[in-house]
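In this section we walk through a basic example: taking a raw amino acid sequence and producing a predicted 3D structure, encoded as discrete structure tokens. The instruction is simple. Fold the sequence below.
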Amino acid sequence: MRTQVAIIGGGPSGLMLSQLLHLKGIDTIVLERQSREYVLSRIRAGVLEHGFAKLMREAQCGERMDREGEIHDGFYISDNGNMRRVDLHKHSGGSSVVVYGQTELTRDLYEARDRMNGVVIHNAEDVQPHDLKSDQPYVTYRQGDEVVRIDCDYVIGADGFHGVSRKSIPRDVLKEYEKVYPFGWLGVLSRTKPVSPELIYAKHERGFALCSLRSQVLSRYYIQVPLTDTVEDWSDDKFWEELKRRLPVDVAERLVTGPSIEKSIAPLRSFVAEPMRYGNLFLAGDAAHIVPPTGARGLNSAASDIYYLYHALVAHYKEGDDTGLDNYSAKALARVWKAQRFSWWMTTMLHTFPDSLPYDQKLSQTELEYLFSSERAQGSLAENYVGLPF
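The resulting token sequence is shown next.
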């Protein structure tokens, strides 16, 4: 089997790159270890920066997003019951974000690949890239008892933090930076009316909370919990009670509760791997970097990787220009580290850290007070939240 670009990972990053390249006449094959049903069962973030939304439209996948997505011009930050609004539209020069669930976005990308007869191979086991430093790399995978080989020009590793792609880079070449936070987010998805038309980030002495939404009838809520907690420790009633404690009284009073559709605990981690290119292997998304979800940068950072790779590969195949490929790692990492900084800042400002010094607690509180005392500080937050330029 032969293709121009072999993509490992059938999540939104891999599917979007495949779709964009297809529209430019560049052949791809996507390999995904899980079934499509499994991929579409994963509940993930849903705040899309304006650049991501534009990329979806360019991929001819934005029709439902534009029809059903929620345009948000701002969000709220609650500080122990005192709620204030960040006006994204005002402080970013007219930009906004789109709230649209990652599951739905991934579904749109799958449907686009189907319409164009794109090759997406599911249940591909033991995927392994080979000869990455040569001009003739290839990828093997197993289906049942058969081992299949795909020859290609380039391999894209979009297979997540635990995938094989990053592990294919020699340890003496790869440098990893990591920070693990001492808490996680317990998330609940419920078929209930959202408590607010815009997101509410809540800082509270009992811990952080977030009120988010997927649609006008589907809500997503989170609370900060210790890493030692399990989902079994939290009944629905216990979750709703704790969430209400961390919200302003008037918000808690109008909160509509209901049975959880999905409930999970996600640990918070910051992670970056350098470089993002090794020979003819290019890393993208969670395979190369992870951020805490506080700043809504995870999926959006992956989209910027895809933007750079897409344009670099088109320049290579259409113009014989390899500048974009040669500069990919440095360019992508420059934006990745800015997303890391912003996510770290939002996380440290809004969460309660166990065993933190009183000095650190005062600094965190002062950071929040400064934010709302300064138009320029709010401008910096808005600029990062709606998305830095590609």
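Looking at the output, two observations stand out. Residues 323-350 form the longest helix (28 residues). The longest strand covers residues 175-190. In the next section we compare this with other chains.
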